[in-house]
Amino acid sequence: NCSDYASTELVYKRSADKGRTWGALQVLVQVPAEDRQRLGLCGNPLVVGNVAPVQLRAHSRHHPGRILAPYTRNNFKAWLIHSDDNGVTWEGDHELEGMTVTAPGVDYAEA
Questions:
Q1: Does residue 103 surpass a pLDDT of 80?
Q2: What is the pLDDT of residues 16-69, one digit of tens each?
Q3: Do the Cβ atoms of 53 and 14 come closer than 8 Å?
Q4: What is the pTM of this model?
Q5: What are the pLDDT digits (tens) for 80-98?
Q6: Alpha-carbon span 37 to 35, nearest angstrom
Q7: Contact between 90 and 28 (Cβ < 8 Å)
Q8: Which residues contact 22 (CB under 8 A, 6 or more apart)?
């Protein structure tokens, strides 16, 4: 079903003073404009959304304070990006392969 495919941006704001003031809106996942149409489905541009951020504990042994931001591309491919500086910069954007299941007859590799 191609009814839920519209061009979207995954955006966020940051506060450095515990929420008293907020910075400008920023795009979390940067996909070049020339790639958005090619990476989309059903003749529509790439859909980026459904983020579910989690921040690891400050005393985490491996990645203290890391913010993990799993999200989806085209509504069903799972991707992950992270920040180690409270959202100032983001890195490591990659697909989490094999994390979702599609309907019978849908070729995940071609989607």
A1: no
A2: 999 999 999 999 999 998 899 899 888 888 999 999 999 999 999 999 999 999
A3: no
A4: 0.84
A5: 999 999 999 999 999 999 8
A6: 6
A7: yes
A8: 13, 14, 15
Tell me the HSE value of 74 on the side-chain side, using a 13 A CA sphere.
Answer: 21
Of 74, 65, 71, give the one whose Cα is nearest residue 94: 71
The count of C-alpha atoms lying within 13 angstroms of the C-alpha of 87, restricted to the half-sphere facing its C-beta, is 18
Instruction: Quote the CA–CA distance of 77 and 95 in Å, as a whole number.
Output: 7
d(Cα 57, Cα 63) in Å, to the nearest integer?
Answer: 8
Which two three-digit tokens encode residue 21?
């003031």
Q: What's the number of CA atoms in the CB half-sphere (13 Å) around residue 71?
A: 24
- Cα 57 to Cα 59: distance, rounded to the nearest angstrom: 5
